[in-house]
């Protein structure tokens, strides 16, 4: 288990409990059950207190946790008969975005998501979930396919932002993001987006301009990273905590503002502690949202999506 900075006191207690159990395994006559149970209770109480009221910066840390389930984990657990479709039919395959045909609860769908990778090799291959123009053009191709065959689209968002490299800009990064966002708004099938970790800038919006947007409880969604915001506003990236508070990037703030539609609960301690449970919760939420949108006609779905984004922010301003 990888512990975050604010979880260090918890790491010490859980480490001591594990040390006691290790000693007992080596010495059969040693009984440490009471001591270990007491430490377990203390750790559980501390975990509950730590996660009871996380501030925005700590939520950023949780959203970025390396052990958090990623797009591939969700696809493996929630979808069957997944067929990966590669390439943008123009330039190249972008491994930062994965997608294809699948079944969700036996219903044919198209699923698209940003994959960060789980180890050094895969993170480099996936470019840490930062897509290039060809990734967004692949997403456009898949959404067009879904629209042609009347298949619902489910997107899983987890990116610090689109890749800002020179090559990406030369190949039309901003244009690709804009056209991907446009495609989201044009398709006449149900489009559901779930922010499972980081929802960064236009790189996230390009896949999250959906009929319904859900967020995991400790995920984040913002126009820029707190570090980037602090660097621009105050020329000091160390003021990221202040920026995180100002950005209102938590699921709770965004739900109040009407930016997202649903908050999906996470296990105590975050999705990284019980990945399978967190993924099941997301699956339940997707099922509910698909059912909600299932009876709508093509024109209704497009109108619903358009009106949702035109009215965005009005709820928060009125409050």
Description:
This protein is of the alpha/beta class and 319 residues long. It folds into two domains: 5-52; 60-318, 2-enoyl-CoA Hydratase, Chain A, domain 1. It is 52% helix and 16% strand. Strands 1, 2, 3, 4, 5, 6, 7 and 8 form an eight-stranded mixed β-sheet that branches. Helix 9 links the parallel strand 5 and strand 6 (212-216). Helix 6 (133-148) runs parallel beside helix 8 (173-186). The mean pLDDT is 93.
Q: Provide the CATH topology of the largest domain.
A: 2-enoyl-CoA Hydratase, Chain A, domain 1
| CATH class category name of the largest domain | Alpha Beta
CATH architecture of the largest domain: Alpha-Beta Complex
Order of helices and strands: HHHHEEEHHEHHEHEEHHHEHHH
Radius of gyration: 21 Å
Distance between the termini: 41 Å
Strand content: 15-25%
- The number of helical elements comes to 15
Number of strand elements? 8
Mean pLDDT: 93
Q: Shape from CA axes?
A: globular
Structural class: alpha/beta
**Share in helix:** 40-55%
Q: Main β-sheet, in a few words?
A: 8 strands, mixed
CATH-level-4 superfamily name of the largest domain: 2-enoyl-CoA Hydratase, Chain A, domain 1
Please describe the topology of this protein:
Elements: H1 8-26, H2 33-52, H3 56-63, H4 71-78, E1 79-84, E2 97-104, E3 107-114, H5 120-125, H6 133-148, E4 153-159, H7 166-170, H8 173-186, E5 191-200, H9 201-208, E6 212-216, E7 220-222, H10 226-234, H11 240-247, H12 251-257, E8 262-264, H13 275-293, H14 298-310, H15 314-318
Parallel strand pairs: 3-4, 4-5, 5-6, 5-7, 6-8
Antiparallel strand pairs: 1-2, 2-3
Helix pairs in contact: 1-2, 4-13, 6-8, 8-9, 10-11
């Amino acid at each position: 288990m990888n512990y975050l900075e604010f979880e260090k006191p918890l790491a010490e207690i859980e480490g001591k409990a594990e040390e006691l159990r290790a000693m007992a395994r080596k010495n059969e006559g040693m009984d440490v059950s009471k001591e270990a149970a007491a430490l377990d209770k203390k750790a559980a109480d501390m975990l509950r207190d730590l996660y009871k009221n996380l501030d925005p910066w700590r939520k950023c840390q949780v959203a970025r946790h390396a052990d958090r389930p990623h797009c591939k984990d969700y696809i493996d657990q929630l979808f069957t008969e997944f067929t990966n479709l590669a390439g943008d039919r123009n330039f190249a395959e972008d491994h930062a975005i994965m997608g294809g045909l699948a079944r969700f609860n036996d219903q044919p769908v198209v699923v698209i998501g940003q994959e960060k990778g789980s180890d050094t090799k895969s993170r480099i291959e996936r470019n840490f979930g930062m897509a290039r123009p060809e990734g967004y053009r692949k997403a456009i191709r898949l959404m067009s396919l879904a629209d042609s065959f009347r298949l619902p689209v489910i997107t899983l968002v987890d990116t610090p932002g689109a890749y800002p490299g020179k090559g990406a800009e030369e190949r039309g990064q901003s244009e690709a993001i804009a056209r991907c966002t446009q495609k989201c708004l044009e398709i006449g099938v149900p489009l559901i987006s779930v922010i499972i970790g980081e929802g960064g800038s236009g790189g996230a919006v390009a896949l999250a301009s959906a009929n319904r947007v859900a967020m995991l409880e400790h995920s984040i969604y913002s126009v820029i990273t707190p570090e980037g915001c602090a660097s621009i506003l105050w020329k000091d990236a160390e003021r990221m905590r202040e920026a995180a508070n100002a950005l209102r990037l938590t699921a709770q703030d965004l739900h109040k503002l009407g930016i997202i539609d649903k908050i999906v609960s996470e296990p105590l301690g975050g999705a990284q502690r019980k990945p399978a449970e967190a993924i099941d919760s997301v699956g339940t939420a997707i099922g509910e949202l698909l059912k909600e949108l299932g009876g709508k006609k093509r024109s209704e779905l497009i109108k619903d999506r358009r009106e949702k984004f035109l009215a965005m922010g009005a709820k928060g301003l009125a409050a």
